[in-house]
Amino acid sequence: MPSAAVPSxxxxxxxxxxxxxxxxxxxxxxxxEAGLPRLLLAALLAADLLLLxxxxxxxxxxxxxxxxxxxxxxxxxxxxxxxxFAGFAAxxxxxxxxxxxxxxxxxxxxxxxxxxxxxxxxxxxxxxxGQEIRFEGLITFGLTARLTALIxxxxxxxxxxxxxxxxxxxxxxxxxxxxxxxxxxxxxxxxCASACTLLFAAGRTRSMAPGAQLGFHGYGLESGGSLPHVDxxxxxxxxxxxxxxxxxxxxxxxxMFDAPQHQLWQLDAETARAAGLLAP
Length: 280
Prior knowledge:
By secondary structure, the protein is an alpha/beta fold. It folds into two domains: 9-100; 111-219 and 232-274, 2-enoyl-CoA Hydratase, Chain A, domain 1 (Alpha-Beta Complex). It is 54% helix and 15% strand. It contains ten helices and seven strands. It has helices at 9-34, 38-69, 74-100, 110-119, 143-153, 169-182, 196-201, 232-245, 250-255, 269-274; strands spanning 122-127, 132-139, 159-167, 185-193, 206-208, 213-216, 265-267. Strands 1, 2, 3, 4, 5, 6 and 7 form a seven-stranded mixed sheet that branches. Strand 1 and strand 2 form a beta hairpin. Helix 1 runs parallel beside helix 3 (74-100) and helix 2 (38-69) packs antiparallel against helix 3. The longest helix has 32 residues, at 38-69. The chain is rod-shaped and about 110 Å long. The termini are far apart.
């Protein structure tokens, strides 16, 4: 009978060798995709080598006891061959883990980078327990899509609170159409100027917080020149028509774009109401 201090060959293989090696190989397969620092990998490799050495010695003790008491070599050779294959598999996985260690992440796509930079120019979030949506900052590409997604995510939102210095006029028109389609009320807080006023005008009802101002100025290119595909006069009349449809007075419409491009004609709540910009 084998010594009680040495487990049987079968017990040593199926309890102490196979499950531990399988767990190690599975962990190594995961590590190969993790891109861990090499110093950490080196420490884990040292631990695995110690474990493998312990398993080999443990198996050999059981193998020696098996040969002394039973004499059959086939189980011993089978176990040793299994350990050899496990060692080769571990070596290959460790090699792969070291090759990918510290690997930089996938490069950011240009479109993703631009979306991230554009979104960083403003803050758009639900607040008030989901009853309102707040926009603050510069109107840039992607706002229309993000506003649409946020409204769909928070269908209980009824008010869009606005504060911003303007931005991209075409994106502002798209966001204004979203506001109109969903019947949101708008409220200006602080300064809502230039393209921001298009979003404000689209509100089902429109109001201004104490101290808020609406700012208007004439349109033009930042360079001061002209582009063949940009008709500043047509853009001016297109947005004037939006304010006309939203109830603005003729007196306001006649001078809403009179201020130079880099100045503002600012209206407080009392002046805005007289101009027909607040409703009701």
